[in-house]
Amino acid sequence: MTRQMTGAKMVVQALKDQGVDTVFGYPGGAVLPIYDEIFQQNGIKHILVRHEQGAVHAAEGYARSTGKPGVCLVTSGPGATNAVTGLTDALLDSIPIVVLTGQVPTFMIGSDAFQEADTVGITRPCTKHNWLVKDTDKLSAKIHEAFHVATSGRPGPVLIDIPKDVQFASGTYTPPAKTPTGHYQPQVKGDMETITELVEAIEKAERPVFYTGGGVINSGPGASQLLRELVDATGFPITSTLMGLGAYPASGKGWLGMLGMHGLYEANLAMHGCDLMINVGARFDDRITGRIDAFSPKSRKAHIDIDPSSINKVIRVDMPIIGDVGHVLEDILKVWKARGRKVNSEGLSKWWTQIEKWKKVDCLKFKQEGPTIRPQYALSRLEELTKSHDRYICTEVGQHQMWAAQYLGFEDPNRWMTSGGLGTMGYGTPASIGVQIAHPESLVINVAGEASWLMNMQEMGTAVQYRLPVKQFILNNERLGMVRQWQELLHGERYSHSWSEALPDFVKLAEAFGAKGIYCDNPADLDDAIMEMINYDGPVIFDCVVEKHENCFPMIPSGEPHNKMLLGEASTKDAIGKSGAVLV
Amino acid sequence: MSPLHIKKGSTKHSAYNLRPTFSDHEETHTIAVLVDNEAGVLARVIGLFSGRGYNIESLTVAEVDHQGHLSRITIVTRGTPQVIEQIKAQLGRIVPVHEVHDLTVEGSSVERELALLKVAGNGDKRVEALRLADIFRAHVVDSTLESFVFQITGTPDKIDAFADLMRPLGLVEVARTGVAALSRGA
After folding, report:
1. pLDDT score for B8
2. What number is the ipTM of this complex?
3. Measured between CB atoms, does B92 come within 8 Å of chain A?
4. Domain extent for B43
5. Are residue B84 and residue B124 in the same domain, yes or no?
6. What is the predicted pLDDT for the residue at B23?
C-alpha cells in the first residue's frame, strides 16, 4: 500500500505504523506543519514539555521503563541544540530515542536563516546516527530506518532533521514492511566455541563473579529471566553496575549489591579477588574499574557485549563474546546444562564463606541520631514505605543518586531510571514524567538533590498540566553534595562554589506550580510525611532537609584499585594521591 | 593476569582480531573502509578520529561503485595494536560503514600515492632535477623556462625520497593525494 501525502502527514503516519503512542515535544516555526497534523488526529498523544532537554529526558524515561523507543519532536535551531544534552545522555547509556527536528526550508539551508543551525553536524557525535531528509519521497523510509537503527544492536539515540518545505511537499508514503532496513544488522548470536570455553571456566571456577550491566536491561525482560536462572542454578555471586540494577533481584540469594566507586565492599572485593569474571552487558566503565593496572588481577575474564568496540577497549579480556545478552545467556545455559550442570562446589563454598565475612563489615551501616535527618535514613525509610508498591525510581546525579542505588532495592528490570554514563544533573524530573506517562497507575518517585532538581524544575509545569502524580523526593543539603565531598577529600576543604545561598522555598514553589509541597526536617516526622506524599493523588515536591556535610561511602578514591576502599569518615585525609586528583 | 590464550577471534569473517596480543609499540596500518556514499559520511569518519584522539597520517576518499552508491575511504593511521583494534571496531559500528579491512594484516597489499611537485630553478640544478625525475620515473606535466611540475606515483616512501632530493634543487610546492591501497591477488 503506497499513498500520496504531505511530508508532515507522513511523519505522523510513520510514527503510528511504528507503534508510537506518545511524543514528547515543543513546537516552533520549523515544525508547524507536523504540529498541524498532530492537531488533526487522535492516535498519538503529544506531551508538551517546558524545555527541549526535558523532552529528550522524558523520552528516555519512557524508553527505559517500557523497553520501547522514546520519541521527541522539536523545532530547528535552539530546539535542536537544547536536545543535545539529552541525546548525549542517551548515547552514553544506550537508550533508544528517535528525535525529529524541524529545519529551515532546503533552499535556505546555509544562509544563516532565522533559527537555522547545522543540526546534523552538531548532533553527529552525540547520536548513533542521524539524517537530513531533503526529499519527501524518502522521508517515511528514513523514519522507519531510524527506528530500526535506534533499537537494533546496541540501542541509542537517532535524529531526523526535516526541512519545512519537505514537510509541506507531497510524496509517496512507504509502510515499514516494504522499507529495506539496509545492511545494518548487528550480530546477536555469540560464537559457540567461546561460549563453550566460558562454560568450561564456569565448571572449574573457585571464585567466580557475575558482573552485569545495562546491556541485560536493554536486551529485554527475557534476558533478565535467563540471567536469574543462570545465577541461581550455578550459585555464583552477582554484582551489577548502576545501569544494570534490577536485572537480578536485590532479594536474590546471589546478590552482592552494586559495585564501583560507591559500590558495596563485598561487591568490589569479590571483583578484586575473583578467579573468573563474567561481564554480562557492562563496559568496564572507569567508575567500575578504578585503577586499570590493578583491576581484578587474578581473574580470567569473559565479556558478553553486542558492541565489538566495547571488547578490549578498557580491560583486556580472555573470552570475548559478541552478541545479544539474551541470546548468549540462552546458549550458555544450554551448553552448561547439556554438560551436566557442573560447578566447583568446594571452591564455591569457600568463596561464599569469604564473601560472608566481607558482608559482615556492613559497609552501608549508619546511625540515625540527633535532630537532623541523615540522607541514608531518608532513603531507608523511603525504601521501607514504598517497596511493596508498583514503584519506579528516577534520580538526578550526585550523592543522592549513589545513596538511592545503595539503599533502594530493585526486584525487576526497567524500574530504575538514572543518568549513568553522562551524569546529567536535571535528568530525573523530566524522566519521571516520561515514566509516569507510560505507567499512569504506578508510583513514580524522583530521588533528587536540590541542586540537580533546580536544573529542570520547569517540567513541574508539564506534570501539573497532564496531572501526572510524580513524587519529587528532594534530599536538600543546600550543597552540591558530591562536589563538596570531593573538595573536602581533594582540595583542602576549600568549598569553592559548592553551596547555594538562595534556594527557593520548595513548598511555596510547589504551590506556585499547582502541585503539593511537603516539608520535613525532623526524623520523627519523616514516615508520616512520606506516607502523605505517597497517598496524595497528584504531583508532590517533597523538601527533605538533611544533614549538610554527609559524605557518600564506601568510596574507591580516584586512581586506586578495588581493595583500597574508604569505608567511612576515618582516614579520609590524603586518601587520594596527586595522580588520582587529576581523574574525575 | 593469566596469560592470554591467543586463538582465532570469536567472530568469524570479522576484520577484528578479538584476542590480540598488545604491545606499546606503535604501528602504521592502512585501513580500507567501504561506506555508503551519503552526505556527511566522511565527517563521521573524521569526527571519530578527532573525537577519540586517533591519528590520521593520510586519508583518501572517492566513490568506487556508482550504482551501489559506495565510496572507499583509505586511511593510514598510527597507534599501538590496542588503539588500532579500537579504531577498526569504532569504524565498524558507524551505521553507513559496510566493511572495514586492515590491509596491513590481511595478507599483502599494494599501496600507491600520486604527487605533483613544482621545482623552480635554472642552470645545473634544473638539469639535475630532470635527471633525477627520470630515475624516479616522474613525468613532467608542466614546464616553463624557470620551472617544472613533476608527476610521480609510488609508495609514500618513494615520494618522500623524491621530495627530499628536489628540496635543494628548488622545490616550491608539493600536492599529494594520500594513499590508495588494494589487497593483492584475486
Report:
1. 38
2. 0.91
3. yes
4. 27-102
5. no
6. 75
